[in-house]
């Protein structure tokens, strides 16, 4: 109880001192407010963007590998002439991997014709992506339907003229009507709608199914050359749940080298891409941005910290005789010490609170004004408060220590 009473009295003394010097308090808050605002604003923006991009990356699957011609990440000495001469993943690669891969949950051949026009009677949607995939597409991707179903085994094998629409495509073509069973026109072919993907919304990497039309691979073979470079063919391999990605990658690499008949020591003529490559690059990029935010905000906090330390020395000077009276009445050194440290901490907490308030207002402006959702995470709020407390302790310690060491008789005389 004595400790709580001491803390309460110290806070009351500190609050009275701040209230009596409003202008000085406001000016002292400015540096801390700007510093906390800059740091937390940068961290909030980075964390929001990082989480949105990571959510897009996670859609690719943490245990999924993509056999493609080009790597997602290029080295500094980019040998473009090596990559451009590589063969595109072929149907032969897909068939061989499907038969040989023992650690794979699914092996799928995919290709895509972008910027297509989809028609239904007088309605049309432009800029759609026409995706063609083998029957195992539902094993390599997590598919959610708001209406209808996926292709049956027979539809995939025979290349039936059926399709699954993205939510935006369905809305644009049918205006709220029931899409299932309707016939749309794509690249001169009439296709029957058997399913509609669940609406996902926009993401940072464009991985949404909302503007896609999915058709069976055997149907697409009669519409365009599915192995042509223009349609970016790839083989997607998803490993089994109880097997690590490294094991699946090792098996896949060995099988691809065997299929392409590459000799030992010969360079791969294919790329195995995975989500961890993107995640690592994101960590590096956003790490640099965070450091820049800390450096910029740190200078402001440093200036604010010196300003608060200066104000605290002035406050000690103004209240020297009061300190002497308190000591003469029995106040201990630690009571005087805590009194001024708490004043410094309260000052910094107020500055930090104003800074966090400005960041929150900024998130509202972006979310409701610019229609870009920005989230102030609890971890950043705690960080802002923590930094404020630390700066308050550092800035206030020496003035508080000097106040606690004053001789009561000399203090009263001053």
Topology:
Blueprint: H1 2-20, H2 22-59, E1 64-68, H3 80-84, H4 91-100, E2 104-120, E3 123-133, H5 137-140, E4 145-148, H6 153-158, E5 162-165, H7 167-174, E6 183-186, E7 189-197, E8 212-216, H8 217-220, E9 234-239, H9 245-259, E10 271-274, H10 275-318, H11 320-328, H12 333-369, H13 378-404, H14 408-413
Parallel strand pairs: 3-8, 5-7
Antiparallel strand pairs: 1-9, 1-10, 2-3, 2-6, 2-9, 4-7, 5-8, 6-7
Helix pairs in contact: 1-12, 2-10, 2-12, 2-13, 4-9, 10-12, 10-13, 12-13
End-to-end distance, in Å?
Answer: 34 Å
Query: What is the makeup of the main sheet?
Result: 6 strands, mixed, barrel
Poorly predicted runs are none
Structural class: alpha+beta
Strand content: 15-25%
Secondary-structure element string? HHEHHEEHEHEHEEEHEHEHHHHH
Q: Can you count the helices?
A: 14
Percent helix: 55-70%
What spatial form do the alpha-carbon principal axes imply? Answer: elongated
Strand order of the largest sheet: 2-3-8-5-7-6
Number-wise, the strands total: 10
The radius of gyration is: 32 Å
Please state the average pLDDT score: 85
Number of domains: 2
Summarize the structure.
With 414 residues, the chain is α+β, with helices and mostly antiparallel strands. The protein has helices at 2-20, 22-59, 80-84, 91-100, 137-140, 153-158, 167-174, 217-220, 245-259, 275-318, 320-328, 333-369, 378-404, 408-413; strands at residues 64-68, 104-120, 123-133, 145-148, 162-165, 183-186, 189-197, 212-216, 234-239, 271-274. A six-stranded mixed beta barrel has the order 2-3-8-5-7-6.
């Amino acid at each position: 109880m004595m400790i709580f009473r001491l803390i309460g009295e110290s806070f009351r003394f500190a609050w009275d001192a701040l209230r009596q010097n409003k202008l000085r308090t406001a000016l002292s808050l400015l540096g801390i407010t700007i510093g906390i605002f800059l740091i937390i604003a940068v961290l909030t923006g980075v964390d929001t963007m990082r989480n949105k991009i990571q959510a897009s990356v996670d859609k690719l699957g943490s245990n999924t590998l993509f056999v493609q011609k080009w790597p997602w990440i290029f080295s500094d000495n980019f040998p473009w002439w090596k990559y451009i001469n590589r063969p595109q993943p072929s149907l032969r690669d897909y068939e061989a991997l499907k038969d040989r891969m023992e650690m794979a949950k699914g092996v799928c051949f995919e290709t895509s014709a972008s910027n297509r026009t989809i028609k239904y009677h007088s309605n049309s949607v432009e800029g759609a992506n026409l995706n063609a995939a083998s029957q195992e597409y539902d094993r390599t991707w997590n598919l959610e339907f708001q209406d209808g179903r996926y292709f049956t085994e027979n539809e995939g094998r025979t290349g039936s003229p059926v399709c699954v629409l993205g939510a935006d495509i369905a809305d644009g073509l049918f205006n709220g009507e029931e899409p299932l069973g309707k016939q749309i026109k794509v690249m001169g072919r009439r296709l029957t709608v058997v399913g509609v993907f669940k609406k996902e919304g926009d993401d940072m990497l464009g991985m949404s199914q909302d503007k896609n039309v999915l058709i069976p691979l055997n149907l697409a073979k009669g519409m365009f050359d599915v192995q042509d470079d223009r349609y970016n063919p790839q083989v997607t391999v998803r490993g089994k749940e109880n097997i690590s990605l490294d094991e699946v990658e090792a098996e896949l690499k060995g099988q691809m080298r065997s299929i392409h008949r590459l000799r030992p020591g010969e360079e791969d003529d294919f790329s195995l891409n995975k989500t961890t490559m993107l995640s690592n690059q994101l960590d590096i990029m956003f790490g640099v941005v965070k450091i820049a935010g800390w450096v910029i905000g740190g200078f402001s906090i440093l200036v604010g910290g010196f300003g608060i330390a200066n104000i605290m020395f002035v406050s000690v000077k103004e209240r020297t005789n009061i300190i002497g009276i308190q000591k003469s009445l029995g106040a201990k050194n630690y009571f005087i010490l805590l009194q001024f440290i708490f004043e410094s901490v309260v000052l910094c907490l107020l500055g930090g609170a104003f800074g966090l308030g400005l960041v929150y207002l900024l998130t509202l402006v972006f979310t409701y004004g610019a229609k870009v959702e920005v989230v102030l995470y609890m971890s950043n709020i705690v960080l802002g408060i923590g930094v404020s407390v630390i700066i308050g302790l550092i800035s206030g310690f020496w003035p508080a220590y000097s106040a606690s060491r004053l001789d009561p008789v000399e203090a009263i005389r001053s």
